[in-house]
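Late entry, evening session. Most of the bench is empty. Finally got around to the prediction I had been postponing all week. Sequence below, unchanged from the version circulated by S.P.
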Amino acid sequence: MPAGGDTRRVGTPANVFPGAPPLVVSSYTLGTTVSFPERVAAAAAAGFEGIGLRAENYVAARSSGWDDAAMRATAARAGVPVLEVEYLTGWGRPEDRDPAQRTKERTLFAMARAFGVGHVNAGLLEHLAADVVTSAFADLCDRAGPDLVVALEPMPYSGVPDLRAAWQVVRDAGRPNGALLVDIWHWARAGTTRGDLDPVPPERIAAVQLCDVGEAPMEPLRAESLGHRLPPGQGHGDAVGVVRALSAHGVTPKVVAVEVISDDLVARGVGTAARTSAEAARQVLDRAARTTSG
């Protein structure tokens, strides 16, 4: 139960995405140094329905004496099970897959299975030839196995810069467990349009991440992405419009996550970061629901 006995839950309105996927607080939204029990408590108090963990969070929790069963039980009791696992990088070339990268990859797959999460988020920073990326993504999907979906996230400063490029990789890789992740910050900064969704089968978008962007891009762009995002609906990324476009396209995400990577928000405390992000996401989803149904 959330702190203080508040049983309220912040869920996606059913008429936005079919099945009302759970609202999850992504790992970075609460900062990189938050302990597992603090993360669970903050998410529950804010009314989230799940939490996201990066491999680094998981390794830190294990090092502090938490095993998988204890983490599952603690999160379940609070009503915020682990529903998002990330982040796979460095899989594009054999030379990038050093021992540390391979260990992280195995850890992420193990996390997904331990927590019953059906998808793992992935991205590729290196700028490589299209055929190299496609072949490497196919291999990554094969290593993940048929029980796990690999959700490829386009990032404008990366080797897979936008939705069109990401769908081409997933399509050409030809793996049924290959999918996409749509993040509003990346959508906005890449100049993505609703028309870019047209060739993408809606069932191949596994997850959606809510956040927002400032009026003008920062330089370097990746620094903005990793520390200066805004809560959804509080910037210039038309978060409501993106949600409406995804809904109209027939997208049925496994989760709707809130990834507000903000140094300023984290500095105000984990509780504030969770609460501010949850309230902003709820407003965006409610507005999208009203405008969709109206």
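Two things to note before I forget:
Strands lie at 23-25, 50-54, 82-88, 119-122, 149-152, 178-183, 205-210, 255-258.
Residues 3-293 form a domain with the TIM Barrel fold (CATH 3.20.20.150).
Will write this up properly tomorrow.
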